[in-house]
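This part of the workshop introduces the protein records we will be handling. An example says more than a description, so a record of this kind follows.
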Amino acid sequence: MSPAATAPTASGPALQRWGGRLPTVFVVGMALVVGLSLVHLTQGSADVRAADLLAWLVGDASRETGAVVVASRIPRLGAALIVGAALGASGAALQAVARNPLASPDTLAVNAGAYLALTLVAAFGVSTGVLGGAVVALLGGLAAAGLAFVLTGGGGSTVRLILGGSVLTLALSSITSALLIVFSQQTQGLFAWGSGSLSQSQPDAVGQAAVLIALALAAMVALGGRLDLLQLGDDQARALGVHVLRSRLAAILVAVFLAAVSVALAGPLGFVGLCAPALMRLLSARVPGLHRHRPLVLASALTGALLVLLSDVSLRAAIGAADAAQIPTGVLTTLLGSAFLVALSQGMRTGRSDATAVLIAGGRLARWSAPLTFAAVLVLCAASVLALLAGDGWLLLGDVGNWLAQNASGRITFVLDARWPRVLAAVLAGGALALAGTLTQAVTRNALADPGLLGISAGAGVGALVVIIGSSRAGINLLTSAVTVGALLGALLAGALLFTLSARGGFDPTRLVLVGLGLAAGASALSTLLVVSTDPWNQSRAITWLGGSTYGTAAESLPPVAVLLALIGIGVYAGRRELDLVQLDSDTPRLLGVQHGRVRGLALLGAVLLAGAATAAVGVIGFVGLVAPHLARLLVGPEHRRMAALAVVLGGLLVLAADTLGRSVLAPAQLPVGLVCALVGAPLFWWLMYAQRGDR
């Protein structure tokens, strides 16, 4: 008898011992849900104890207790349960369709698309209930999911999926932020809601959403058999009678509908749709039968409800129900999810990055690098003059000449005294971010690396926000130098965490990207926590600053950026040969006597300092460190003696152009420069990913 024939007999006792664990998973999960729900109902500003709940259940409670429980606590509890269940089931389905463990409503930008659609409707004063909001969110989520699948090639590659989805999320969030700023009155309160809030002003909405989610869950369970067959591969699924395209579209439609209803009810709660099914897939190795999608979808829904409920209970227990009411529950779920993403990255390794080849490609105009850089400098100078003239009130060149000669009128002097620091800040910050991106891409050997996507800029933003909000609360005058120090410390801490957590077993590109995105998500959640916990005046100011803005830039904040850019630029030119070798692979530098670790450490330190100083001057700006080095490399090749200077000039030009457009197109309203950079940089990023589609 063959070994294959004896295998089922040998595994029979094991299946009998472990077969009962699948029901146990659901029994334990339901018990935890009931226990946490009882705890949740006792939390609040009014004193309702467990004995009061028991009396209310048997009809022997005071009218006040019943009113509090029915009107306030049950809607919040219901929102936590149904939103968590919807996101968990949605993530399980999206992971099955994409055949990727990192697919979720977050990484495929479903939540961001739904949130943008709802914000757009609110900005134009259209009122929607839960049903109307669900339809609007569904359309936005479907559009975002479809675009994410197209951009990432179906989600097969882990790095491509999470990078493409994260960039799409950032672009959609930038549009949403622009709407929140331009239509601040119509969208008041949507910033905190946009991080995921369980507070319910309309209790009936929870019941309506529960019916929709229950129907969608039933449909998803019915599709479970097809999802099982899809995991075998398209050809084998077709051979077994499955219509692959129709099944995928049906699963995506139901998954996006689940996420859309949850966003319409409570806003986008981050990472629940990623963590819940991922935890169940890990558990399926110990629980036979859990890998099948019918029980997996239900278990993921149960786990999602537990995660949201546990987050809300923990938040209210830690800081009190009154303070917790001001903080979106999604902030805590995002923090937990970012930690989970970092932990998940520690077991992943892919070796050479898809984007490594781009670092050593390009260079059709390499022989013309010097004239090309000089021409770019001339364009930057012309753009700087145009930026001085542009704004809500356009000036003439003669006005600038009179201002330089100190013969201008008071109005012209006032305008130009406010504009020139903005122009110089945009040029310096853009150059600093471009050089930081150049260094980051070289030492990580990844053309898709960027200080913004890797969490360094977000860490700098947290450090600066701590200083800005802390000084306001203390009633002291804010010093520009204090903001710079705070941003640098935040960037250094984020950089230290990034490369410490990525160093396990070598700087694997996949691990580096996942850790960086996890840190960026965690830092963004901390920034949201700081913003929503301050007063309304500081909140509006902080939202604008987080979007990246030169508005109100003080000349005193510019020298640190200029000094660091000059010193590190000289260092890059001096170490250009070592950087050229380091970006090739790990072995070539060592064979040629280059101290690989020393070069990497110094380059990363320079990148962190540049990103921190730029963030302190103009706020959080993304994509510049990605786009400028890539364009320079495409034009003049990968050698740092040619491309580094050109990247700096292109970075300054990109931020300057974005700032000029942001304060001129909608004048007198102004869009933060970071939002404009995101809208310009995202398409270029996707083009870069599309160009690498054959390298997967």
